[in-house]
Specification:
- The strands form 3 sheets. The protein has a 7-stranded mixed beta sheet, with helices on both faces. Strands 2-1-3-4 form a 4-stranded parallel beta sheet, sandwiched between helices. A 4-stranded antiparallel beta sheet has the order 13-14-12-15.
- It is of the alpha/beta class.
- Helices cover 41% and strands 22% of the residues.
- It folds into 4 domains: 103 residues, Rossmann fold (3-Layer(aba) Sandwich); 63 residues, no CATH class; 165 residues, P-loop containing nucleotide triphosphate hydrolases (Rossmann fold); 86 residues, 2-Layer Sandwich (Alpha-Beta Plaits).
- Helix 1 runs parallel beside helix 4, helix 4 runs antiparallel to helix 5 and helix 5 packs antiparallel against helix 6.
Length: 451
């Protein structure tokens, strides 16, 4: 890839300052995990407090001298800042320290470059890298400038800097064209699923919350899952059979992080459209993280940025096997709808509750209906069993099948419109609600049918 670098376990010095003028502050522990995920080997940490960043080096003169001595002592080749540096600050630091300097955005981009595997993922990462690099081009290679006069020295009239900028613009344009093709393919697949009535469920959440492990457990997939930040980068779709509902498509997506670079959000717009246009979001939360409330706010912020904040959502508290006192359970709101479920993707505890909640939220009102099928309607009977709509079956004296069904009302209406089906007794109830609420709905439906 354009900006790939090999894994090398580079010695790195980590710099984290508390800036009093900033309301939101990044976690230094998370910053260290980012460095480790990138393949760096932290050999020293420098911390401090400033009222506001210095204009030229971000850090003050005293802290800069401390950093110079630390780099010299540890023989580090890389300095990582847990902050966003301006292009001039980055250049000044590299010149003063005689080593490479990366800010938080550059570090995240580096991790993404290492993890991208699919063609789409590589294009998206390269686009974000190029946009980041375009603001950091500096005047170099002046001996290659082509504005000199004299015989044999007349060039194209461009400096090397201008050539670099032009090549980057051309490459960005080509990547956008490739991503537009990917977006078109995704839209075509999405329209196909909509025609067949297959709903889409998207996993979202903070990085390392256990989304890929949950995805693998639900769909029997083999996606890479590890206890590290941004273990998953490429979006993956798999089919899942939900009880009393039928097939659904589950999408595993890239994790979010605090202060996610805007360039990444823009570059991954094609992938994140799966989240914005999903029928249901599973917001996976690390139940063992003490800062889960703050991390939830970060996820909500990104969802708002990609216009996915209005999509129906179910909170999934994961990793309960790591926390004492947590048991699998399902929490409902005042209307009886599921809002949060506690599970362990690793052990499988609580997954039955999760599947029940997903079915309820995707199906809306489920219908309990008895139908009578003739022997000639074996194809319809087979379809009902394959979709797991059948809860019980009997056979009458004529050989007809009496099926007790539990299925979405829209699916029942479709069957009634296309097939000559004799109905038995029915009961309308929302799956999983309290008996009193279900009975009230059943009585309401019965009185309406009798009027």
């Amino acid at each position: 890839m354009f900006l790939d670098r090999p894994d090398s376990d580079e010695k790195a010095v980590l710099v984290h300052l508390i800036i009093n003028s900033e309301e939101e502050r990044d976690d230094p522990k998370e910053f260290e995990e980012l460095a480790l995920s990138a393949g760096a080997c932290p050999v020293a940490k420098i911390s401090g407090t400033r009222r506001q960043p210095a204009a030229n080096y971000f850090i003050g003169s005293g802290k800069l001298e401390e950093l110079v001595n630390c780099v010299r002592t540890t023989k580090a080749k890389l300095v990582l800042f847990n902050h966003s540096l301006s292009p001039s600050q980055e250049r000044n630091l590299e010149k003063h320290l005689n080593c490479r300097v990366l800010d938080r955005t550059g570090l995240i981009l580096d991790i993404f470059a290492q993890r991208a595997r699919s063609h789409e993922g590589k294009l998206q990462v390269e686009l974000a890298q190029l946009k980041h690099l375009s603001t950091r081009l500096k005047r170099g290679w002046t001996h290659l400038d082509r504005q000199k006069g004299g015989i044999g020295l007349k060039g194209a009239g461009e400096t090397q800097l201008e050539l670099d900028q032009r090549m980057i613009r051309q490459r960005i344009k080509a990547i956008h064209k490739g991503l537009d093709k990917v977006r078109s393919q995704r839209q075509q697949g999405r329209r196909s699923r909509q025609r067949t009535g297959v709903p889409t469920v998207s996993l979202v959440g903070y990085t390392n919350a256990g989304k890929s492990t949950l995805f693998n457990t639900l769909t029997n997939a083999q996606n890479y899952a590890a206890d590290q930040l941004f273990a998953t980068l490429d979006s993956t779709l798999r089919r899942l059979e939900l009880p009393n509902l039928g097939p659904a498509i589950v999408a595993d997506t890239v994790g979010f992080i605090s202060h996610l670079p805007h360039g990444l959000v823009d570059a991954f717009r094609a992938t994140l459209e799966e989240t914005a246009l999903a029928d249901l979001l599973l917001h996976v939360i690390d139940g063992g993280n003490e800062a889960q409330d703050e991390l939830q706010k970060e996820v909500e912020s990104v969802l708002t940025e990609i216009d996915a904040d209005q999509v129906p959502r179910l909170e999934v508290v994961n990793k309960i096997d790591r926390v004492s006192g947590y048991e699998p359970r399902l929490l409902r709101n005042d209307a009886g709808l599921p809002v949060r479920v506690w599970v362990s993707a690793k052990t499988g505890a609580g997954l039955d509750l999760l599947l029940t909640a997903m079915t309820e939220l995707l199906a809306g009102g489920l219908v309990s209906q008895t139908v009578i099928l003739r022997a000639t309607q074996a194809k319809l009977r087979s379809h009902l069993y394959e979709s797991k709509f059948v809860t019980a079956e009997q056979t009458d004296e004529t050989g007809a099948s009496i099926l007790d069904l539990r299925l979405p009302k829209a699916e029942l209406d479709r069957i009634l419109a296309q097939e000559e089906v004799q109905l038995g007794e029915s009961e309308y109830a929302r799956c999983g609600q309290s008996d009193s609420l279900a009975m009230a709905q059943a009585l309401s439906a019965g009185s309406a049918s009798g009027s």
